[in-house]
Design goal:
With about 325 residues, the chain is an alpha/beta fold. It has one domain: NADP-dependent oxidoreductase domain (TIM Barrel), CATH 3.20.20.100. Helices cover about 40% and strands about 20% of the residues. It has an eight-stranded parallel barrel with strand order 1-2-3-6-7-8-9-12, surrounded by six helices. This is Aldo/keto reductase.
């Protein structure tokens, strides 16, 4: 049942938000009770932006969020994505997209105008809402689509984004933008289509940020809001010693593991958990409006809130810079 329309959330995006890929069983299964506990904890501490997607658990993440909203009077700022439609598997095996026990659907790329409407209709039904605060075009870019990139980009510019702009004009969303893991495609699009925001995952983090800095500076100059996803680089910067090390949704390469160890060593010397430094570093760039952190349980959500508010000795940032772990021109928290 769709909830009655509520006024849009305040114009300003929250400084920190909850990335809900984990609620779709990214890497490993999360129980219904754990997912609900995570969402209720986010409500309790005021983590009032949730970013999700039909892709996350093949609709499971959105469904779990919708179930929570149906049980409460919580009206967080919702961000979801279009660009894939979900088709029932029927007799076809559920594809392995990195989600454990996803819902029985097959995600299929569709950047047509009709596909954008279909994808959003499915999201609204699962979330139980009739509009969302932020709507993002998901996973366009050369690394994702390879030789089909030029055709995909043209369809995004000719069909998908104009349809999203029409949906914004209809009051179905406040903001439109891209949700991607690639900076290059963002640079291609903003010169050809007016966007409100960009969600860039994993490319501007404490681990790796130098190549993305000039683009974020451009966004700041042009007034484009940037949401940072993957602040922990697929969990690498927040992993416990006994947890698998992931980077870019895959096994972490040696260089990333070694650099993370160097970052952790300096943070530890100042008594600061590495994830706290990672979150606060991302938030320091003036183009960044929101940093999204993934969590799967209420305990993890509360830990994120603690990290986000933790006081950090400014000398730690100096030490990281002196050890060539932060670029000279990268903003750091003051």
């Amino acid at each position: 049942m769709t909830r009655p329309a509520e006024p849009f959330a305040p114009v300003d995006l929250p400084r920190f938000g909850l990335g809900a890929a984990g609620l779709g069983n990214l890497y490993s299964e999360v129980s219904e009770a754990e997912a609900l506990d995570a969402l209720l904890a986010a409500r309790e501490i005021g983590l009032d932006l949730i970013d999700t997607s039909p892709f996350y658990g093949h609709g499971l993440s959105e469904q779990r969020i919708g179930d929570c909203l149906a049980q409460t009077d919580w009206h967080p700022s919702l961000s979801t994505k279009v660009g894939r439609v979900l088709e029932p598997t029927g007799e076809t095996p559920v594809p392995d997209n990195g989600f454990a026990s996803p819902a029985p659907f097959i995600p299929r790329f569709d950047y047509s105008a009709a596909g954008i409407r279909d994808a959003f209709a499915g999201s609204k039904a699962r979330l139980g809402v009739d509009r969302v605060d932020t709507l993002l075009l998901h996973d366009i870019g050369r690394q994702t689509h390879g030789d089909a990139h030029e055709d995909t980009l043209r369809q995004a510019l000719d069909e998908a984004l104009p349809e999203m702009a029409a949906m914004k004009a209809e009051g179905l969303t406040r903001r439109i933008g891209l949700g991607v893991n690639e900076v290059e495609v963002c640079a291609e699009v903003i010169d050809q289509f007016e966007l409100d925001c960009l969600l860039i995952a994993g490319r501007y983090t404490l681990l790796e940020h130098e190549e993305s800095l000039p683009f974020l500076d451009t966004c700041h100059q042009r007034g484009i809001e940037v949401m940072i996803g993957g602040a922990f680089n697929s969990g690498l910067l927040a992993a416990e010693p006994d947890q698998p090390l992931h980077y870019n949704y895959d096994t972490a390469p040696d260089w990333a593991v070694e650099r993370t160890a160097r970052l952790r060593h300096i943070c530890d010397s100042f008594g600061i958990p590495l994830p706290a430094a990672a979150l606060q570093f991302c938030a320091a760039h003036p183009a960044v409006t929101t940093v999204l952190a993934g969590a799967r349980t209420g305990k993890e959500v509360r830990q994120i809130a603690e990290w986000a508010q933790m006081g950090i000795d400014p000398d730690m940032w100096v030490a990281l810079r002196k050890n060539d772990l932060i670029a000279d021109n990268a903003p750091v928290p003051s």
